Amino acid sequence: MNDTDATLDEPRSDFIRDIVRADIEAGRVRVGDIVTRFPPEPNGYLHIGHAKSICLNFSIAAEFGGRCHLRFDDTNPVKEEEEYIEAIKTDVRWLGFDWGEHLYYASDYFEQLYQWAVHLIEAGNAYVDDLSAEEIRAHRGTLTEPGRESPHRGRAVEENLDLFQRMRRGEFAEGEHVLRAKIDMASGNINLRDPVLYRILKAAHPRTGDAWCIYPTYDFAHGQSDAIEGITHSLCTLEFADHRPLYDWFIDNLPVPSRPRQYEFSRLNLTHTVLSKRRLIQLVSEGHVKGWDDPRMPTISGLRRRGFPPAAIRDFAGRVGITKSDNVIEMALLEHCVREELNLSAPRRMAVLDPLKVTIENYPQSEEMLEAVNNPEDAAAGTRKVPFSRTLFIERGDFMEDPPKKFFRLAPGREVRLRYAYLVTCREVVKDNSGEIIELVCSYDPETRGGNAPGGRKVKATLHWVSAPHALDAELRLYNPLFRDEEPKIGDDLAAALNPQSIEILKGAKLEPALAEALPGETLQFERQGYFCPDPDTSLEHPVYNRTVPLRDSWAKIQSKSS
Ligand code: ATP
Ligand code: MG
After folding, report:
1. Count of alpha carbons within 13 Å of 518, Cβ hemisphere only?
2. Using one digit for the tens of pLDDT, what is the confidence trace for 358-385?
């Protein structure tokens, strides 16, 4: 299966798909006319929470034969950058989705939005206010108290039109005026208490340059952009539920070309991390991580660098499901999806993380090539040749001089299997002056080539190994949760919430030579250890691998505990 082709994923079922199906059955929308959109604000990189929204919007469009737009919600020039736009496009594509020709920017609609603001003024539905942002806040009231009307609320239409035009021409300073909708200062919904539609921002915009010095607010831009594009189902997270009456008010009061509807679902929260852009920006800008694509980050680019396959992220999004209840998902579930996917697709290799030298005393040849299976889950992946020689490395933890009862791996006098090679028996333990074990001397049985004894003699352990003269020395980066607590509570001190062991660097790991050819983007299984992928920092002289996930599945454990 092509890992990046999302159209091959299983269809899902949830309350939003039920709504879409009902709309089709009732004839409100025709099959093929379903239009959704993913509307990121280009003020940061995408994270796993965005992936949930991307998967939802693009798969609904695919399942019902419609289309999904990628629309940049670029209404705030102060925080937005071109770098983010490019990164977002790369990430959506990498997740396996394609917007085709339907790439849009809210800034493309600035002129139309301005005309619609004029329309509201002419209809007596908007006015220019002189109150400062702080005064507007103070007039807004609370959940239990109504707001107070601005003294400028009764301004005549002509005066409003004149002031609004002059705002556009740049005649006023920032904060001197805003344009507000005239709705209801006593509304039980605070969003309807004369929300701000336009503010003056003397900032150049990445796309429109200096053409504008007034910019529409999110609320004014969003629904109208949906209407312009013919979006049928505008899907967003729950915090916008209270904005829906305002969304509908604009659609009711403007001559828009279509009537989109907004539906809300709960946002994704994940243990041991944060998904707030403000916090992610802080992690990067304060240098707590090495950039947006640091493999510890919950960003799409971080997960990609870490070796997570896009199919695993889509699978995760599907399993999390779409509901209206807020909850926190275990990071272990995401890792479980990664393991399930990689178990099927990742080529197997041998690597020793903590090497202990082994000499095979009776091995006569200098070396030979042995055949190893690339992926026991996928016969088509074939086999490869692995060099074997007189000097090898095994994992230090696979030997014990004085083994307890349940330790079945190598020990003095004991025979074990070296995977794809031979049965070997430990004959002698060599120590340095301080008493540390520095080498094992073993003998091998030449009759056991490939790993099976002729008489059916059994051994209880199979160890991975790497031939010493052929081994590549590598740096391995092992990752642990970025935040110490399951649900990090971050006060003023972000650093205090971080896990000081979020990265461990192992130098001097030994890799089988085939690993010299792996490229970033390819994730492999190091047998008995975990899944690893080359980091972009890797080179032939200095291989660097990231641990994607260890083999052990803590999610399976959590599940068996709770069932
Ligand atoms: P902020 O973190 O600053 O509130 P945001 O995460 O909402 O910003 P946007 O760029 O506006 O960032 O998000 C684009 C889309 O992704 C929106 O439709 C938003 O609802 C959705 N989205 C954002 N975070 C999540 C999340 N954690 N789970 C599901 N959807 C999300
Ligand atoms: Mg947002």
Report:
1. 32
2. 999 999 988 999 999 999 999 999 999 9
Nearest to 65 by CA among 41, 36, 38: 36
Instruction: Give Cβ neighbours of residue 45 (< 8 Å, ≥ 6 apart).
Output: 84, 87, 88, 91, 280, 292, 293, 299, 300, 301
The CA 73 to ligand 2 mean position distance, Å, reads 9
343 lines ligand 1 (CB under 6 A): no
How do beta strands 415-418 and 462-463 pair?
Answer: parallel
| 504 in Cβ contact with 490 (< 8 Å) | no
Pocket flag, ligand 1, residue 302 (CB < 6 Å): no
Q: Is 58:71 a contact under the CB 8 Å cutoff?
A: no
Cβ burial 288-299 (10 Å sphere, 16+ → b, else e) = bbeebbbbbbbb
The pLDDT score that the predictor gives to residue 554 is 66
Q: Where are the alpha helices (DSSP H) in 271-359?
A: 277-285, 300-306, 310-320, 331-345
Residue 178 dihedral angles phi and psi, to the nearest 5°: -135, 160
Residue that the structure tokens 């330790």 belong to:
407
CA dist., res. 413 & res. 427, Å (int): 6
Cβ atoms within 10 Å of 546's Cβ, excluding its own:
25
For the chain, 563 residues long, the average pLDDT of each consecutive 10-residue run is 61 91 94 95 97 98 96 94 95 98 98 98 98 97 96 98 98 98 97 98 95 97 98 97 98 98 97 95 97 98 98 97 94 96 97 98 93 96 97 98 96 98 98 97 96 90 98 97 93 92 96 92 96 96 96 70 61
What distance in Å separates the CA atoms of residue 413 and residue 459, rounded to the nearest whole number?
Answer: 13
Burial class (CB in 10 A: 0-12, 13-18, 19+), 495: exposed
Our mutation pick for probing the ligand 1 site, out of 53, 95, 322, counting the most ligand atoms within 8 A of Cβ, is 53
Determine the Cα–Cα distance for residues 175 and 392; give it in Å rounded to an integer: 72
Q: Is the beta carbon of 237 within 6 A of some atom in ligand 1?
A: yes
What atom in ligand 1 is closest to the CA of residue 43? 10
